[in-house]
Design brief:
350 residues, alpha+beta, GMP Synthetase, Chain A, domain 3, 4 domains, three-stranded mixed beta sheet, 8 helices
Amino acid sequence: MPFSRPSLSDIFARIRAGILSRLTNEQMRRSDAEVYGRVVAGASHELHAHLQFIQQQVIYDTAEAEFLDRWAGIWLPQGRLPAVAATGSVSFTGTNGSVIPSGTPLVRNDGAEFETTASGTISGGTALVPVVALQAGQAGNTLAATVLTLSSPITGVNSDATVDGNALTGGADQEDDASLSARLRTRIQQPPHGGAAYDYVNWALEVPGVTRAWVYPNELGLGTVTLRFVRDDDTPSIIPDAGEVAAVQDYIDAVRPVTAALTVVAPDPVPLDFTIELFPNTPEVKAAVEAELTDLLRREAYPAGTILISRIREAISIAAGEENYVMATPSADVTHTINQIAVMGTITWV
């Protein structure tokens, strides 16, 4: 039976009764015994609170950030995954021969700051120069064709630079408590086995930004391992690009058994579209339904997986404010091949 922490009033009543039981004369309402009882009860209540806090910290799944980091430091080699800055290249234009120095600062229209990590020289009217976000985190990821502006002018170089077709990617926020706690519990429950299927999944999750991964032994032949993963916190797409795939491949290659032939690939996204007649048909309820469907796909979509129609209906039904609905599509379970994964498509409201 778990310990039930007494309330302050219960502690005071218990102490007061103990004091009065040992006094022979009747005590007045503002007597010293009443004061002593309240002071001791307050101190006891604070100690109970501290004991309750400590009780949560000594168990892995209830530990708070500071203590969770200490547990992770024991069980996980790298501890909490750090934030990572987005990288990529931008295209400058200007007069041939003009030089863009390494460390040149640029700014996005929302104030996000970047700088070049190598120098570049305008040739044929353009120069492609690598850049990095100055603030680590997902916010540094930037779509292709986005304009970055020079913070200070450079002679012979136009002030606007354009993110190239590969975009600025790889940015990831510092791992949150929920993700770290889940990895810690998995590490304890599934000790490393030198190349078991779940080892590959756990290795992939040790790469910042990776949120889900799946392993397929012998898919490409005897002795092969195929791993697919996604980055759910990236926008606009959860599907990793070539650089992010290479980062996971390189990381796992350094820790996997030398006898395994590993291939890391990005799954092909298959948008799952919906046609829904919703009651009430308000913006708030629509947003709640979309959020529930997005969460459903994050929980249950995987390569070669099936999205059950019953789960879709359940997700819509539990949306805040929903009273009734009619869904025309999908009309049955949605199944995908081994290299496909369902992603959020378009909701058509009728």
